[in-house]
User: Fold this.
Amino acid sequence: MNETLRLYYDNPYLTEFTAQVIAVAKRNSHPALALDRSAFYPEGGGQPADRGWLSATTAPHRWEVVDVQSDNGTVWHLLAGSDSWPEGGMAVTGQIDWERRFDHMQQHCGQHILTAAFIATCNAPTVSFHLSERSVTIDLAVNELSEAQVRAAEAWANTAVWRNLPVQARFVSPDELDRIPLRKPPAVSNNVRVVSIGDIDHSACGGTHPARSGEVGAIAVLGWSRQRGMIRVEFVCGRRVIAALHERDAATRAAAATLSVGWAELPTAVSRLQETQQALQRELAQTQRELDALRAAQWYAQTPESNGRRIVTATLPTATIERLRTIANFIAELPGGIAIIAGGEERVQVVVACHPDTAVDARDVLAAGMVVLGGRGGGQARLAQGGGGQQAALAAAIAAMRERASHG
Assistant:
């Protein structure tokens, strides 16, 4: 099959063209057309595919292009569902979704510029690039990145944008390629297409770009994080900067309104709120501990003594393992106290604690319950804990542990 002539190479601003269908097939569960020439950009190089429409030039049929893929030089246009399909040899008119195309041109060119900026300002080369519907990411081959480094690169990149540098995309000969200071070696050896942005960046690239860097508008870094030994930087360009500004402004104003402060006072208000929350959490924890001590003492007092032991059993489904230990220890601090305290809403957790004068080993008591539950556990003679099994077996497990504690 003949390769598709890619019209976007010569003119990324071309939004309408005519072509002939050279093949019809099914790809990824969609009807797909191969054309002899196309302005649609197929997915590749980190840039998503174009979207748009194809229309029959001699009949009132129009098909939505929902994806574009390249296969051995042939560009396939995947179509949305329809009752009628184009045929081989049919003449069609293609129309590009320009808003999507120009957005991708802004983001991809901005990526080249920001990549050059990180190299120039902190010697952090880009190893991968991904353009999504909301933002763009690049992975930098560094272990750390400071706020100052990020903002320096961002400022460098925007200065390059506002210099309105010429952006030249062309196929070069091997001799010319040897004279171009490429950012990194090309992935192919023949038909290398180089995108040059003024004198700041030269890169082998098959993507779509504007004619001048000024069309990128602006570049804003949204955040960065460590990813598999590298630093992933998330950013937006062009009209996405405005969208991100509106989104963050709306969130900021909503938060400020909730706290009844102006947006500029929001950091201080949030800091005060955090301090208040931490103080309340400490107070709540202390109150919970005091209530647990009272509850433990009440359970202990209500439990009959037998052979110098008071075996207190209780189930607290929503309690954490830390709370189970706290309550069990309160009981085991009282004369003859033995606590068997269980919790867990799905997986059963059990804590056993014994007063030293009971001569009962908490590990032995726990083991009797784990046999019934089919769980595992361990600890020391005075305190042991374990877990496993289902709630349905818990009553039988507690009965087994009580029996062992009574005769241990």
